[in-house]
Amino acid sequence: MPVIHADQAAVHQMHGTSFTAYASPARGSRELCAWHIEIPGHTEGVRHRVSREEVLYVLSGTLRASLDGQAEDAAAGD
Question: How many CB atoms sit inside 10 A of residue 64's CB?
Fold first, then answer.
């Protein structure tokens, strides 16, 4: 089992947001991805489609996500 230490994680900047990749197919996993995402307050998301299931765990703050026109709010711990 590989351990990805914080200083080894790949960091990407896109749309004013920081994405830190810990696990992804590009890093050796088959399908699982694990990202730490830092989104500045009041950032408007960019519409996109994902090809796999996606799980968000909110560490701090709140966010609103929309899926097929259905909006849901999530806060720290959700």
Answer: 9
Q: Are 37 and 50 in contact (CB under 8 A)?
A: no
Q: Which pair of structure tokens corresponds to residue 70?
A: 């259905």
- Helix then strand count (H, E) for the chain reads 0, 5
* Alpha-carbon dihedral 50, 20, 34, 74, rounded to 10 degrees: -70
pLDDT digits (tens, 9 = 90+) for 28-65: 888 888 888 998 988 888 888 888 777 888 999 999 98
Task: State the amino acid at position 73 in one-letter form.
Answer: D
Which one, of 76, 16, 67, 9, lies nearest residue 42 by Cα? 16
The residue type of 15 is H
d(CA 33, CA 26) in angstroms, rounded, equals 9
| CB-CB neighbours of 69 under 10 Å | 5
